[in-house]
Amino acid sequence: MNTFISCDWGTSAFRLRLIDANTKEVLATIKTDWGIAAVYNDWNNNHPATDRLQFYSNILADGVRALAQECKHALEDITIVISGMASSSIGMMDLPYKALPFHLDGADVLTEVVSSLPNFHHQLLFISGAKTREDVMRGEETKLLGCDVSNQQEKQLLILPGTHTKHVVVEDKVAVDFKTYMTGELFSLLSTKSVLAASVEKGEKGQENDNKAFFLKGVTEAANNNFLNSIFHVRTYHLFNYHSPHQSYQYLSGLLIGNELKELLNKKYSSITLVATGVLAPLYRQALQALGIQINKETDADEALIAGQCKMYLQMKKQQF
């Protein structure tokens, strides 16, 4: 079987998957909270004398052992394909960004191969990020590589929701521009660290649909009103008993996502693809529909990541042999 280990190493989470490269099937998976930020802080504060690459590889080794236990199969010497923050200034190694444009066939994506390390006999394939003059991404470029994008000349838009949501413009299977929106991070800050924190409360899982109307209210209000004024309504609507804390939580979410997406009302694209997973997928779908913006295609973000890593892994093997 032609397998590799997929490593999705973000700022706050660490995930390994055993992948069949021919079918893109996930054979086993493990996830921990050992994101890049936590690992870097541990290394920088407690183990600065240890070689950085070796220190991070020890975390990888622990993960590989856990994955081997999960799949009940030895995983010695198997290649690990790494995307996300592992190639950043706080990651295993700091790789430069690929300046746009970049082709979605992966031909000009920046990668780095590390053959092996002492006591860690796995070949590592790092996939680096991309940049414009004003913006950067790490991790999303791999998802773009895994998206089935048409080769039409007209501008297409791909929306990748997250802590820092990306809007990527593609022409003829080439990423030519993108913008970052700090929607997720700003939501976290406002809902936990600001004066609005006392007015919002996350509902139980599965209750989101009960307060859908308040989410959509936030979306439409954001599209028509000043954002800085609207977010204060989270406090006043709770103060006047117009909204419960659960309803205000959804309302604030709608305000932020609506404020991000309203820019699309004045732009034209030949198609719009939503690349999302988890709770963000239905929220962005509902928000786009509420604004009258047509989604032409939806792609699961996790599947796109795996497909992108498969593409780069198979290209590396072809070049090596």
What does this structure look like?
With 321 residues, this protein is α/β, with parallel strands linked by helices. The chain has two domains: 3-138, 2-Layer Sandwich (Nucleotidyltransferase, domain 5); 183-300, 2-keto-3-deoxy-galactonokinase, C-terminal domain (Nucleotidyltransferase, domain 5, 2-Layer Sandwich), CATH 3.30.420. The protein contains ten helices and 15 strands. The protein has helices spanning 36-46, 52-71, 140-145, 183-193, 212-224, 227-230, 233-239, 245-261, 280-290, 301-320, and strands at residues 3-9, 14-20, 25-32, 80-84, 98-99, 102-103, 111-114, 124-127, 130-131, 136-137, 156-160, 165-171, 174-181, 271-276, 297-300. The strands form three sheets. Strands 3-2-1-4-8-7 form a six-stranded mixed sheet, with helices on both faces. β9 and β10 (136-137) form a beta hairpin. α5 (212-224) crosses α9 (280-290) and α7 (233-239) packs antiparallel against α8 (245-261). The protein is globular, with a radius of gyration of 21 Å. It starts with a strand and ends with a helix. The model has no long low-confidence stretch (mean pLDDT 93). Keywords: Kinase, Transferase. InterPro entries: DGOK, DGOK_C, DGOK_N. GO terms for molecular function: 2-dehydro-3-deoxygalactonokinase activity. It comes from Ilyomonas limi. This is 2-dehydro-3-deoxygalactonokinase.
